[in-house]
Amino acid sequence: MKILTKKDIIASYNAIKHKDHKSMYVYHIDLLDQRLQHLKNEFPKSVLHAVAIKTNNLPEVLSYIVSQGCGLEAASFEEVKLAVNAGCDPSKIVFDGPAKTREELEYCNANFQGIKINANSFNELEKLLGLKNLNIGIRINPMLRIDSPDIFMVSGKGSKFGIPITSKERIVSNIFASPSINGLHVHPGSEISSLEQHVSCIKIVYDFAIQINKEIPNKIKWIDIGGGIKPEQDFDGNQKKLTHFIALLKKYCPLIFDDFECITEYGRFVHTHCAYAVSKVEDILEYHEPHIAIIHLGADLFLREVYSSSPPSHQYFNITSTDRQLQRYDLGGPLCFSGDFLAKNEELLKLQIGDVIAITACGSNSISMWSEHCSRKKPIIKYAR
Ligand SMILES: Cc1ncc(COP(=O)(O)O)c(C=O)c1O
Asked: Which residues pair with 50 in a beta bridge?
């Protein structure tokens, strides 16, 4: 199995004994394994894949990633602790995020020797002064516009991430003043459509690293190229995309894999298609067309889809019935505000109260973003292997 089709989801759901649920979240570790192997096979073996914890923070998932020799990218001190609890060696943890406190950095220096920390600003570099047990990278804002959805674009003016490349001289003097600074980091955004633009951002940081190393040989030892690749619906599409991306990297940054330790921080590319969710249909409101099906998952599990302007695409299936007529529905979540709709005018096999609806592609930025609005409990979490 390469991607979860309706047939796969029905088989997976039927294999799970626990049927007494309002909603359930099922993560396929077998698919995670496939995606990690895919990254490891396509990139040179020396590359460290530090998978983004924010995208999926389930402890079993993190432990599996670590068991496969990969690292973890933490966007907060709390995520650093999740990584440590998952058994990740500090040298494979990358601590990002724009709001690290002095106390957190000092704690890492005292307890997690060798951890990589990407400084987000000049003020953060000042907090890191004198902390000798860390590998410090500087996050660079390449200041190039890229074609990722606006809310996921973090390159350019107005971004809160990274030091603009336009401040090169000040960055260089900081690098030369601190023996612990030995890396550079770039993550221009998520769901980036153009691989060429994506690689142009990485090239800016790569050229900068080469320039620094001309003055002090081997000063920049690692380049962290972040995440950002948009997963395709089908596995073969992903395969082609990654092959093309790596070919572009080799063309424009020819020494990136030879002269530097290269680190990736993929989130969506790894997790999106590894999980699905199911919900019982609790009510069907038939006052108007289309009818509204009320289910147990809405803006609590799918915050970005409901609140943001650029939703990731899910598919919805009625998995109770296979032979009813098609009918259009609005899919309403359980929360008490009028915007809590997962989908509008969605064509499904005719629903009855008590039917089970499956939602595909739930691996990324869903369970890790759970919202307690209306104080509802998380869905039951299950793993498939
Ligand atoms: C610094 C950093 N690295 C990696 C990621 C993961 O990005 P993606 O899910 O697009 O691969 C993010 C996402 O926000 C990020 O901010």
From this structure: 71
User: With a threshold of 0.85, does the pTM exceed it?
Assistant: yes
> For the chain, what are the domain ranges?
6-26+273-384, 30-271
Cβ(55) – ligand 1 distance below 6 Å: yes
**Ligand 1 atom closest to the CA of 265, numbered from 1:** 4
Cβ atoms of 245 and 202 closer than 8 Å = no
For the domain bounded by 6-26+273-384, which CATH number is listed? 2.40.37.10
- Tell me, in angstroms, the distance from the centre of ligand 1 to residue 28's CA: 21
Fold of 30-271: TIM Barrel (3.20.20)
Ligand 1 neighbourhood includes 79 CB (under 6 angstroms): no
pLDDT tens digit string along 4-19? 899 999 999 999 977 7
DSSP string computed for 246-275 = HHHHHHHSTTTTTTSEEEE--SHHHHGGGE
Q: Model confidence at 311, in pLDDT bands (50, 70, 90)?
A: low
Instruction: Give the atom of ligand 1 at the shortest distance from the alpha carbon of 271.
Output: 9
CA–CA dist 9, 200 (Å, integer): 39
pLDDT tens per residue, range 270-291: 999 999 999 999 999 999 999 9
